[in-house]
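To: structure subgroup
Subject: Chain for Friday's discussion

All,

I'm putting the inputs and outputs inline so they're searchable in the archive.
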Amino acid sequence: MELTVTPEALAWFKKELVVDDGRGVRFFGKIYGKTQIHDGFSVGMSVDKPERAIVQKTIDDLLFFIDETDEWFFKGYDLVVDYDANLDEPKYAFNEDKNDRS
């Protein structure tokens, strides 16, 4: 499982969120919505302290992560976080994780 944040998405997060030291941007599965891999669920995000991160990436001093409790939602996929200029918000894409052996 990989986590990629595009430069455009990074700029949006830096502009829109206040992230204190020791915290980061957490991605998780939430009820309602639809993704390319889940009906009835969408990607949520919050500013949180990582407890049991299974994937994390720091870009320009901003931490992004997925917690162990959300592994079910992302298992078998890499998450790409991009920016939708028309909606002025992040957009998410899932790519098959070629390294996942489960």
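Points worth raising on Friday:
Residues 16 and 62 are 13 Å apart (CA to CA).
The chain has a mean pLDDT of 88.

D.
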